[in-house]
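Blackboard transcription, Thursday session:
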Amino acid sequence: MNKFEPLIIGFLCKWCASAAADLAGTSRLQYPSNLRPIMVNCSGFIDTSYILRALLEGADGVLIAACHPGDCHYVDGNLKARRRIAIIKNSIRALSLEPERIRFEFISTSEGAKFARVVREFTEQIRALGPNPLKGDER
Amino acid sequence: MPERIGVFVCHCGKNIAGSVDVNKVRERAAGLPSVVHAEDYVFMCSDPGQDLIRRAIQEKELDGIVVAACSPFLHEETWRNLAKKAGLNPYLVEVANIREWVAWPHSDDKKKATEKAIKMVEAAVAKLRSDKPLQLMRIPVNKSVLIIGGGIAGIQAALDVAEAGLKVYLVEKDPSIGGKMAQLSETFPTLDCPQCILTPKMTELAHHPNVTLMTYSEVEEVTGSAGNFKIKVRKKATFVNWDKCIGCGLCMRVCPVEVPSEYEIGIANRKAIYIPFPQAVPDKAVIDPISCLRLKYGKGCGLCAKECPSRAIDFENNEKFEELKVGAIIVATGFEVMEASNFPEYGSGRYKDVITSLQFERLLAPSGPTQGKVIRPSDGRVPKQVVFIQCVGSRDPENWNPYCSKICCMYTAKQALLYKEAVPDGQAYIFYIDIRADGKGYEEFIHRAMSEQKIIYIRGKVAKIYEEGDKLKVIAVDTITDKKIEINADLVVLATAAIPSPGIQELARKLRLQLSEGGWLREAHLKLRPMETLTKGIFIAGAAQFPKDITDTVAQASAAAAKAISFLTRGYVEKEPLVAKVDEDICSGCGNCVSICPYEAVELTDEGVAKVDEALCEGCGACTAACTAGAISLVNYDKRQLFDLISTLVGR
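(Written on the board underneath:)
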């Protein structure tokens, strides 16, 4: 029996989370390769349709990582993202999806270790949750 | 939109090739839609590597490239410049970060790492296929510089910028410039007095035609961006008309209220109306409204106003706001030192004769409250046994700061030396963890303290101090001999840790700067861009970045000034064209984008559609997520591109 390998789409803001992911790499921290990252300028840019698209396409989880409150390079894009994500988490119940498939984290430039830990945790969390129910059997 | 794409896969020696099958990545890339060329090479960023890309662009007539290599933070600029030189629009370049994001964190599983690297390249190609060529925007700059902080860093930076012919505004929160350096007795390792080397600079600055000094002022609000910042400065209420005040100090003589002086760090008092120190620049008085009787009760006293020969005192709240327009900002907000009250093992600040080293500076200073006579704060006696403790709050990750405060080894040696000069029959003991003396003439200075003045250095940390009679019992362990040590001290001087200025968090927020661990300002790159920040047009000087001695502070201040000057003298800033654009056919004029934009870069036109001011737009994309119609999008990050990216990455 094949072990379920979750596929996770990650939206990483350029100024904090992306740099933290760089730091995790530079520090040679190992974390599961299940995360497929997309760098965006700011978490405030992340339209809920992107998260929905990822889930509808069959991603098992979506991670959004932003600067800590007060650290946003664009004033408060991270707080806008947090609000938006709180709403979308609730809305995906309508698609029979668990809100836990979406995770929002504040990760600063210096938190390479936190980035690695969050990816590790989230991968395991999604693994426990099982495959995205919207996904066909063929995958 | 690129239809002849080249993909270049870097091995980065073994950094990538060691955990990613680069051949396989190249093979898979070659088969992707629109990809007409794929190559791999050991070091893409090397000259031959760059040459290989340049040739491919020209010979294969590529109209877009993907470089699968290290983080875009390192080399995106390199690839863009290269593309430009090869005749390709620099915005038709995408980077797939397969080193920091793939090879390094997944080095334990080559198969999975390779799989992920392929996906990342696929995604980059998918995005590139819809990228549009863009042109850098050129925006004229305001050739003036705001310097925040008037310590030695701010002063040096201001002088350098002003000398280059640019206009300088220096904003200082205290009534006078001078900062910490003005509080010091002498400076290591040369033992120059700050009055001799700092005061002339302060005066020069005050009289420089290109400099506007704004002391007793704070930055209230910052808008705009690199080249064109708008600054709102709050000039705090002085209750004294500085145009009239001649700095004679008669007011201070008659004022009946005494409170601890900030400048003397509580070692001596000042009046409710005061000029912080005799060499203050500007030499103007302010009234502290908390302790002034007249201001507190709204009537009575007024002795200073009666005495003032120039009728400068008005008791009216003269707080003012002023708007500045500057092209660049240098942050030089310096540091603070921890207070003795933080350390219960050393009496939590209850023992009068346990003081911080900054307080001891005032006791040593010839211009200080005791004219340089070293006495105990408790009873005014000359202390004969003085214990210095280094690393108080520094190098103590369990309790306080993990970092080394950098300056304490040197100033403690200096203070012990100066103490011995003042009290030749006294004995100085220094408790230390290591001695760090890594500057020009520093090691020699320490040796001078040890050999000439017979200062006793003891490796070890003091566990406890308690009062016994009129002595302070210092209990410690010498970690070289492992012996317990007890000293009956008259005075204990704590080299407390350097910490960031208390206002730095709020200021960083206003300036959109990041902080490093410990709360110091984060530089753009610790080694290569230590005086720049990640916010274009904003630079750092001095201890605001991390504790530094005066030598390094001055060097960094001049470096920051040079950066600001070179940034502004070109006359324009090049701005990334990655801004929001409106599709007027779809825009309904709801105004969501207008209200969400943190930069006031979007407005509704008379025709009722949104319009973006590209000079103000920072490209955050908040508006794109707020637009219900999908009418506003970020250039080269439009919704379709994001959907393509997502679909590609999800596809298995």
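Lecturer's comment: The longest helix of chain B spans residues 550-569.
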